[in-house]
Design a protein that fits this description.
- It is a lipid-anchor.
- One of its GO terms (molecular function) is transmembrane transporter activity.
- Belongs to the membrane fusion protein (MFP) (TC 8.A.1) family.
- By secondary structure, the protein is an alpha+beta fold.
- The protein folds into four domains: 95 residues, conserved putative lor/sdh protein from methanococcus maripaludis s2 fold; 102 residues, Beta Barrel (Elongation Factor Tu (Ef-tu), domain 3), CATH 2.40.30.170; 53 residues, RNA polymerase II/Efflux pump adaptor protein, barrel-sandwich hybrid domain (OB fold (Dihydrolipoamide Acetyltransferase, E2P)); 76 residues, Helix hairpin bin (Helix Hairpins, Orthogonal Bundle), CATH 1.10.287.
- It is built from seven helices and 20 strands.
- The strands form two sheets. Strands 2-9-13-12-11-14 form a six-stranded antiparallel beta barrel. A four-stranded antiparallel sheet has the order 6-5-3-8.
- A hairpin with a 2-residue loop joins β17 and β18.
- α4 packs antiparallel against α5.
- It starts with 5 loop residues before the first helix and ends with a helix.
Length: 416
Amino acid sequence: MAPTSPSQSRLQRHPLAFNARRLGLLPASLLLVGALLAGCSGDKEEAGQGPAAGASQAAQVDVVTVTAQDVPLTTELPGRTRAYQIAEVRPQVGGIIESRDFTEGSDVEEGQVLYHIDSRTYRADVESAKASLAHAEASLNTSSLQAKRYKQLVARKMVSQQDYDDAVATVGEDRADVASAKAAVSSAQINLDYTKVTSPISGRIGKSSVTKGALVTASQETSLATVQQLDPIYVDMTQSATDIMKLKRELSKNGKASSAPSKVKVELVLDDGNVFEQEGELQFTDVSVDQGTGMVTLRALFPNPDELLLPGMFVTARLVETVAHDAILVPQKAVSRDTDGNATAMVVNAEGKVEARVLQIEQSYENQWLVTGGLKSGEQVITSGLQKIKVGSPVEIANDEAVASATEDDEAGNTQ
């Protein structure tokens, strides 16, 4: 058996002293544990006070008060620009080109000389026609004098009636020769004038297909150049016959919509996305449908003072086809979709609480939705702060965008 140490022997001899010493450490441990538990419970109480206090406060949101108004419904149609007037320059007489008297790509005026054709033969034709006219006029003068003398002589029975009738007929023939000679002079002069090829319209001229020294013929198939008037300029658009028929049916059924005025204003969006600064006007809608495409052509006229628009450019035209009366517009940021795909919005009801609404949306209008059902004029739709609210919770309106917009418009008007 192993020997015991002196300390172990002392503890064995005095067990009460060992237990008393061990129990003396308990109060201090209990105090430390109690303090820790008290601190945790205090933190829990403070943490519990935050949500309780926040739940009693209403969330602040921004709203827009919707109002019924007349809204023009626009339609975007693809189109291409067309010159207002196009004239292909062709020679009316044949000959050698002596000179080209314009700069390619420049603006020309109506009647401006573009080409000179060798005119020597045509000038000679004019002189020859004038000589024939003079000969015919001389013959007419002689026959007229003879007819006058025969008239006096036939009354005295000094010439026969037949001779007098022949003299009168000769006068008629000579008068016809004079008229023919005058026409020949006019024709020769016209051909001489045609040796100066002029511009039939004012506009911008393109490249020339001939140069000095080229031989041209009268009314040839190949044009010498093309002149196009660019101010104003046409925009030809196409719309399906189905859409036009649908629009007419909606107008006949929907009492809250009306057709646009006859002179519809048209806005032009260029291929780069910029809006053309000039506003156009719809000129006409074609009365027939293209059998190959099923489309109907519409034409608008645009001022083009800077000639920014060139023929053949692709553009997008926005035009007003109908006007929706008593329509309601809602900002797109205030509308979302539920799991079923329905358009919904949050509305502040009369009790100041959040209410969900299912909306019927017709189409977009700028950055807003055109609502045809689910809202009434004067209701307040929540536009911001949606992440802080839920259906049935009270809210506090921080800003009404409709009121703010009206105030800004008034201030702008007063400043002007």
